[in-house]
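Lecture 7 notes: from sequence to structure.
We start with the chain below.
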Amino acid sequence: MNCPKCGHRRRDAVKCGSCGVYFTKLRRRHHARTRHRHESGTEHHRGGFGWGAIALTAIASAVFGVHFARGGSPPRLTEPQTQAVAALEPGQGAVPASSMQPAAEAAPQPLQGLAAQVAKAAPARNAIERARNATVFLQTRFGFGSGFIIDAACHVITSRHVVDSEGARVTSAAVAPVGLRASMSTVDEQQLRAHIAEQMQLRQALAGRPGTNLQIVELDERIQTMQQELADLSVPRARDGGHRSETVEPDGFSVTLIDGTEFHSLHAQTSARIDLAMFQLPADNCPHLTPAESTRLAQGERLYTIGNPSGLAYSVTSGIFSGDRGSGDQRFLQTDAPINQGNSGGPLVTESGQVVGINTQVLNGTQGIGFAIPIEAVYREFVALR
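Predicted structure tokens for the same chain:
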């Protein structure tokens, strides 16, 4: 056998006679080198895997760091995305980009018709402004008032005395609860007298001034109309038997919405028993109020009136629910929310914008005592709304 180191043929089994190496030490040295090469190869393999994992972790951390720095939240998979991930086998590949799109939310139904038109012109920022958008301004040949749309079919509710000249004559006799009729019966008459006095003072101030002839003529016509109405109020009228009638105003009345939309030559169906009237606008998909049960009102609950006091269109005032007055068909909602001339026929609404009553009267000689007809009476009087 030859020496593993020098190749000389050896005769001694312990030591090479040519180079003098001990064969036992040479074998130990060879085994040590072999074991070192094996261990080095294993560590190299393990080290490669470890660095790859570290690199992958660093990349993922950077992505999530940027996402959170921008104020985002951890991404979540939708159910279809989760199923797609679960279906993948190791090494199969990435999830398709199309399956990673966020799930679409159901879009709200867009407003249509007149409701969309009004919402665009007067965007509502709270429940009271939404109720305002369903309130209308009424103009008749003998005055003005308010009303509100009660359904998407564009039915409008108002006070009878706003749209019917005879309504003012029956208001005190047919509407006021027992114990309040005497004091409430003179409200319309006093308001009319005060308005006539204001117009006459204005006429006197314009008299003799150049360029005021046309204004004076218009004032004279207005004063004459109101004086005739005042005379009509003093004529006693027998009570009706509770039947309903159509207003007989020949020229009708006009209605204006908050966006400026106008409707002319309208006529209303009226109640002979209660100070209520109803008519329908020639339109589609109107903004409207939602009714609430007036019997659920608690004393002290906040209420709002929306209307056109003294011609100040779409004014909002607030007060509280003071209590119930009367009973049955003669029930009224008492409130200290201001009800002025022009508020008649407008809605009395809750903080959530639901209508509970129709503003109708104030108590003569007092402040902060107004009355509204409960909304339930509207559905009893007008079959078309049931």
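Points to note: The radius of gyration is 44 Å. The longest strand covers residues 315-325.
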